[in-house]
Amino acid sequence: MSNEDDEIDGKSKISSIILGLVLLVALGWINYLYFSKHVSSNPERINNFIAIDNNINKFRIPVSSVFFYPYGQGGRKIMSSQTAPKILVAPSQGYLYSPANVAKAYQRLLPWKDKIRNVILVAEHQDPLFAKILLSKAAFIENHGSKMSLNPSLSEFLQQQFGKEATFENLSRFQAITEQIPQIRDVFGKRVKFAALVYGRQNSAEVERVLLSLLQDRETLLIFSADMSGYYTEPENINASENVAVIVNLAQKAHLYPKLFDLVNFEDMTEQNYRLSELKNEKPLSTLEQELESLNSFARLYGSDLLKIAKVALDEAVMYHKHFKPSRENYADVLFNRGAVFVNLYQGEELRGSSGSLLPSQAVAFASAQNAYAAALEDKNFSPVSKEELPNIKIKLSLLTGFERIGYQNEADLLKKIQVGSDGLVIRDGNRQGVFLPSEWKNYPQPQEFLNNLKIKTGMSPAYWSNRIKVYRFKAVEISRHEN
């Protein structure tokens, strides 16, 4: 019996070893799949995309205004709706200057008007040989009937910090200073302590030293009035203003990150009589709207790259039934930030396949490639795209924001809260879930029609309703071109 027992024990050990090896291989494969999907993607999300990072002249594109925000805990960039900006860069002249765009930039300060106590307006003297720091000796600065009273104690504090390099003069003769007065007045009125200064290029280091100490105060905002045009677009116009260089140095030393407010072209600057007072009743941007702005910036800079990735993935899928995985060697690193994307295929005006992800679980480059494959070959509502159809297939991508739950009392109340034309909707009832992108408003322009057809897609009757249905809204940026 002992030999039989030994044989049984031996077989048991072998079985245990084999089982252990199988489990290790399975665990390794699961880890590989997880890491290839998640770790190969950057932790950042394109929903928080910032068009300029680390250096303000990284992208030579037209700019209206830039805000600089502090990093959150652990170096995390936080949404601008959650914290007050420390620096606003507003153009005062140049081919990019437009009162309309400057006014819209100042509107971003309205949520913080009661929390900012000190405002210091800064401009650089146009003479590169000028070697002084000027503080205003007048009681106020005026422009077009708007007066901004200067605070004596704040001006004296600055004079003490700069020492002998600072002198007092009437700053109302400097356009870079006076151009900002109406907007500052509209936002802050008499609630803040206000001071202004003009400095020479040779005093840049001293200005950086003093202003850096002021950035440590949570209630202080620096507004730089600068000629932004020297930094962007025109190849022959490459001599950057020293004022912008000071801003970049300050931001880096104070650990601030920039957020581009607006991109503008010549045709966007026709409106010259735009006042911030016309915007006062508008609500601050919601989180979804801020994410939408980030996605719009991302799409402007990288939309064509995503379309190329989707096109390659579509060709590989249809021609060879292969999955295409974009390589970091061939595409910008930011394309490997996480993003939620839908890929829709069209033949003429008719939908030919669709696939997408609601959550930013992987790099937007990977998601674009995988969803292009799935839209072509795995959409159960359509037959697989054939090789003969491929030349006529058009690709449209939709980049999704996060989600916001819509509270309602009943179906009628919900219909009133849906934002026609811009809301994408997700409805969920038990195990049933349906999604409509904002592009579906073209097919169903009325809220009731939109909701009814979404119910049908979810597997419900159009007449069905229950207050247990959960409804979420999101926004989307569509990227497309006529020829892929």
Kindly list the characteristics that best describe this protein:
eight-stranded mixed sheet; 3 domains; four-stranded antiparallel sheet; Dna Ligase, domain 1; 484 residues; 11 helices; Glycoprotein, Type 4 Pilin; Protocatechuate 4,5-dioxygenase, Chain B; 33% helix; alpha+beta; 18 strands; single chain
What does this structure look like?
- The structure is a single chain.
- The relative contact order is 0.12.
- With 484 residues, the protein is an alpha+beta fold.
- It folds into 3 domains: 239 residues, 3-Layer(aba) Sandwich (Protocatechuate 4,5-dioxygenase, Chain B); 109 residues, Glycoprotein, Type 4 Pilin; 76 residues, Dna Ligase, domain 1 (2-Layer Sandwich), CATH 3.30.1490.150.
- The protein contains 11 helices and 18 strands.
- It is 33% helix and 20% strand.
- An 8-stranded mixed sheet has the order 7-4-8-3-9-2-1-10, with helices on both faces. It has a 4-stranded antiparallel sheet with strand order 12-11-13-18.
- About 11% of the residues have low confidence.
- It is elongated.
Helix and strand layout, with pairings?
Layout (H helix, E strand, L loop, with lengths): L1 H38 L26 E5 L16 E5 L7 H9 L10 E7 L8 E4 L3 E4 L2 E4 L2 H11 L3 E4 L5 H4 L2 H8 L4 E7 L4 H11 L5 E7 L15 H12 L2 E5 L26 H34 L19 E8 L2 E7 L7 H14 L15 E8 L3 E2 L5 H7 L6 E6 L2 E5 L10 H12 L11 E5 L1 E5 L4
Helix pairs in contact: 6-7, 8-9
